[in-house]
Amino acid sequence: MKPLVLIGGGGHCQSVIEVAESCGRTIRGILDVPAEVGREVLGYSIIGTDDAIANYAASCEFVITVGFIKDPSLRIRLYEKVLAAGGELATLIASTAYVSRHAVIGKGTVVMHHAFVNAGAEVGENVILNTGCNVEHSARVGNHCHISTGVMVNGDCNIGDNCFIGSQSVLANAVSICNDVLVGAGSFVRKSILKPGVYSGNPAILKIKR
């Protein structure tokens, strides 16, 4: 396998390094903003900025290691920049995660430690399945989503693109969430969400329109 170049040197990068090491992957280095070049993250050097993506496109695979809390736009922009340069996005599955052989995981997605993806689930590209989350049977997670720590996505749920589901939230069986939704930590989504916005609570209700 080709070595990895990680794009983004913040806290999420540290978590992805842990996953990559557990998979036995070699990390070539990290790309970040100019002010960070030369710094190290867990012993790995920041070797350039995202303007250097094309320099590594032939010899390395990439992982977007910028986090997503409020807005996925930077992760999406970097994803598109990798593809435009002819680069390949690596899919990483932590050694302690479980992904059914009957599930589908898209390119550029990182499945963190102790996450569980059951049979028939489909997870899109450039997704974060964070530590200890559960994506149950036949659920779908769209592109550029972040399913945060300890989230329970129950069976037959359908999550659109560009969504963030906050830590310890629960989605009831077979609910759908449209594109561009942020669900606050600890929420219970009892019914489908059909309009973009920020939702939270038990039950989750609209707090901010988008």
SSE order in H/E notation? EHEEEHEHEEEEEEEEEEEEEEEEEEEE
Strand content: 25-35%
CATH topology of the largest domain, by name, is UDP N-Acetylglucosamine Acyltransferase, domain 1
Number of helices: 3
Q: What is the correct CATH architecture of the largest domain? A: 3 Solenoid
Q: What best-fitting shape do the alpha-carbon axes yield?
A: globular
Mean pLDDT: 98
Can you offer a commentary on this structure?
This protein is of the alpha/beta class and 210 residues long. It folds into two domains: 4-90, Rossmann fold (3-Layer(aba) Sandwich); 93-201, Hexapeptide repeat proteins (UDP N-Acetylglucosamine Acyltransferase, domain 1, 3 Solenoid). It has helices spanning 11-22, 53-56, 73-84; strands at residues 4-7, 27-31, 40-41, 44-48, 61-64, 88-89, 92-93, 98-99, 104-105, 110-111, 116-117, 122-123, 128-129, 134-135, 140-141, 146-147, 152-153, 158-159, 164-165, 170-171, 176-177, 181-183, 188-189, 197-200, 205-209.
